[in-house]
């Protein structure tokens, strides 16, 4: 019996794969070797989810893995027209990041409400300056992205007494459609971007959207950097069109040291870490092993990405 | 008919007192004039709750206000043996600060869980450094102080999935007694001080208590500065006995510019602002007016402080 070949896009072996010993032949690839190894792989595990190597390597001719799993919620870094058009099944890490990202959003929203960044600045200056801060309960949030991450954010903010509105691709089932977005943005104290990056969402937070928001509003992006027109956000912050923002994701990652974003007043920059709580790699490894066992048994996979839409439909 | 005299300890008139126009004669006092004006006052409103003037002015002989209200939750700044032994009723601002302080604690706990202070430091250095952070849900908190503020903190942390234990002066009704404190501290990820300052709580967070905590634990004080032996906390942080702390209250306020506390690694210093959300002065003014109307009608006051214990009993 020939063992199936699992090709791992990463230098280091993921945790928890030991469980598959004797059931699979594991090979590794990096950006330079991926194209050459794709033809002989049955399964591709995109463990280095910061890499865009799949999108570059896939278009070549020839046999391709029947299944690609990415250890991330977003799939924008690997979907190319050729992969989307192929029979290959793509799955993602749906579920692993929901609660961590929701907590991260709550942390940033509360930090803004309580003026914590300013408190830390004043502490460095050894300055005692009492300020009034905001009560979070009773404020309004607009969460854009109605997948499990957006829903977890809504649950967490709800639990803190925030009135939330969830905006998705289409209205229904407690979700607002895009036609309500501007109206909801105009009354939100907190705007959270947690949508997948697709042709429909790319650049959706542009100058117009920031102009619609209240001058007291804060914007938090935990989705993908390209949801935001970064220059428009910078201008909105510099001109106080909105009160502040937190970006955990960027059009270019890692954010270059010479990016102007590091020093925009009112902007908190974090290094794409919102979902990554202690143990996350183990969880991602265990999740892949579970999926592998379904695949091995010839059973239907879960977390299957709709490659036309660019995310896992349903919730 | 002689109007009762309301003596306000503060230079500025509190908001909302206009409602009492024609029903009370309002006078103002400061630390230097308070002792001289106490004898002719029927009611004393301690609006400047940072002042210790009452404790200094009260001991003199002679007539004294029958009712003292303080626009604060704590009463340690005004209770002296002579006031405690007198017939004068003391009331406080119970209720106004509960939810704001609970949110403030949640903000600090989440900031620590998500390593936000470090993120802001790295941003200043223009350094992209991914770290794993902590998942808040499933962690354990020990909240010391079982009054309405402590209970609001418990409710808010509970809503975020934290397992909480509440410690009060005596066990019962879901509250742990002091005999459980060390055991609870030893397993807590987050320790929150929200107790009134009394002879029983002064200096309770000392070297022993920090030593009992886990090296990964964070300590947050929103009660009174003197609950903590500050030198012991500084040592615990410098020697990494605990992971970090946030102090909103201090033995000496405002914290002097040359205090070593400003620069202790892992310590967040804020200027006694945890309860002070936009509108708080209006709320405090309205609360006093409500109490005044009870007093004027000869009805029993609420929020009456047990002057022996140093807080309003019950919850």
From TrEMBL, chains A, B:
SUPFAM superfamilies: Formate/glycerate dehydrogenase catalytic domain-like, NAD(P)-binding Rossmann-fold domains. The keyword NAD applies. This is Hydroxyacid dehydrogenase. GO terms for molecular function: NAD binding; oxidoreductase activity, acting on the CH-OH group of donors, NAD or NADP as acceptor. Residues 107-274 form the D-isomer specific 2-hydroxyacid dehydrogenase NAD-binding domain. Pfam families: 2-Hacid_dh, 2-Hacid_dh_C. The keyword rRNA processing does not apply. Belongs to the D-isomer specific 2-hydroxyacid dehydrogenase family. Keywords: NAD, Oxidoreductase. It comes from the Bacteria. It comes from Streptomyces calvus. PROSITE patterns: D_2_HYDROXYACID_DH_3 (PS00671). Residues 29-305 form the D-isomer specific 2-hydroxyacid dehydrogenase catalytic domain.
């Amino acid at each position: 019996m020939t063992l199936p070949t699992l090709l791992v896009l990463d230098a280091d072996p993921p945790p928890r794969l030991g469980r598959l010993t004797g059931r699979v032949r594991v090979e590794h690839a990096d950006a330079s070797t991926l194209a050459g190894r794709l033809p002989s792989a049955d399964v591709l595990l995109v463990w280095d989810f910061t890499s865009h190597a799949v999108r570059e390597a896939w278009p070549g001719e020839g046999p391709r893995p029947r299944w690609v799993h990415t250890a991330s919620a977003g799939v924008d870094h690997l979907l190319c027209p050729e992969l989307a058009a192929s029979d290959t099944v793509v799955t993602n890490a749906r579920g692993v990041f929901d609660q961590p990202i929701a907590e991260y959003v709550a942390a940033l929203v509360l930090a803004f409400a309580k003026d914590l960044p300013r408190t830390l600045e004043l502490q460095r200056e050894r300055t005692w300056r009492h300020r009034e801060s905001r009560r979070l309960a009773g404020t309004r949030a607009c969460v854009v992205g109605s997948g499990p991450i957006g829903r977890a954010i809504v649950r967490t903010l709800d639990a803190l007494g925030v009135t939330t509105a969830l905006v998705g691709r289409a209205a229904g089932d407690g979700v607002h459609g895009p036609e309500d977005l501007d109206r909801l943005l105009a009354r939100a104290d907190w705007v959270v971007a947690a949508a997948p990056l697709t042709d429909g969402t790319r650049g959706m937070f542009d100058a117009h959207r920031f102009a619609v928001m209240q001058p007291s509003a804060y914007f938090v992006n935990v989705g993908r950097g390209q949801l935001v027109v970064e220059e428009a956000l910078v201008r909105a912050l510099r001109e106080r069109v909105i009160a502040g923002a937190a970006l955990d994701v960027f059009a270019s990652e890692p954010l270059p040291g010479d990016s102007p974003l590091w020093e925009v007043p009112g902007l908190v920059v974090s290094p794409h870490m919102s979902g990554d709580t202690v143990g996350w790699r183990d969880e991602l490894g265990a999740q892949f092993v579970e999926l592998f066992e379904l695949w091995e048994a010839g059973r239907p996979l879960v977390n299957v990405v709709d490659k036309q839409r660019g995310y896992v439909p349903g919730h």
